[in-house]
Amino acid sequence: MKQQRQIRQDAYKSGHGFINRYQKLIKDVVIPYQYEVLCDKVENTEKSHVILNFINAGKVLRGETVEDGFYGMVFQDSDAAKWIEAAAYSLSLFPDETLEETVDTLIDIIANAQDKDGYLNTYYTIKDKDKRWQNLMEGHELYCSGHMIEAACAYYEATGKDKLMQVMLKNVKHIYQVFMMQENEGFPGHPEIELALMKMYHMTGEPHCLQLAEHFINIRGKDPKFYEKEAKKRNWTIWGADPTNTDYMQSSMPVREQSDAVGHAVRAVYLYTAMADLASEIEDKELHTACDRLWKSIINRRMYLTGGIGSTGIGEAFSVDYDLPNDTAYAETCASIGLMCFASRMLELSIDRQYADIMEKAFYNTVLAGMQLDGKRFFYVNPLEVVPGIAGIAPTHRHDLPERPGWYTCACCPPNVARLISSFGKYAYGENEDTAFCHLYAEGEVSFENGLRLVCETQYPYDFEVTYKIISGNKKLAIRIPGWSKKYSIMVNGKKSECGLINGYVYLDVMSQDVVKVTLDGNPYFVYASSKVPQLTEKIAVCRGPLVYCFEGIDNEGDVLSIALKKQGKLEVKKWEEKILGNIVKITAEAMKAQKIETLYTLEMPGKDNYTAVAVPYYTWANRGINQMRVWMNSL
Amino acid sequence: MKQQRQIRQDAYKSGHGFINRYQKLIKDVVIPYQYEVLCDKVENTEKSHVILNFINAGKVLRGETVEDGFYGMVFQDSDAAKWIEAAAYSLSLFPDETLEETVDTLIDIIANAQDKDGYLNTYYTIKDKDKRWQNLMEGHELYCSGHMIEAACAYYEATGKDKLMQVMLKNVKHIYQVFMMQENEGFPGHPEIELALMKMYHMTGEPHCLQLAEHFINIRGKDPKFYEKEAKKRNWTIWGADPTNTDYMQSSMPVREQSDAVGHAVRAVYLYTAMADLASEIEDKELHTACDRLWKSIINRRMYLTGGIGSTGIGEAFSVDYDLPNDTAYAETCASIGLMCFASRMLELSIDRQYADIMEKAFYNTVLAGMQLDGKRFFYVNPLEVVPGIAGIAPTHRHDLPERPGWYTCACCPPNVARLISSFGKYAYGENEDTAFCHLYAEGEVSFENGLRLVCETQYPYDFEVTYKIISGNKKLAIRIPGWSKKYSIMVNGKKSECGLINGYVYLDVMSQDVVKVTLDGNPYFVYASSKVPQLTEKIAVCRGPLVYCFEGIDNEGDVLSIALKKQGKLEVKKWEEKILGNIVKITAEAMKAQKIETLYTLEMPGKDNYTAVAVPYYTWANRGINQMRVWMNSL
Question: B478 with B529, same domain?
Answer without folding.
Answer: no
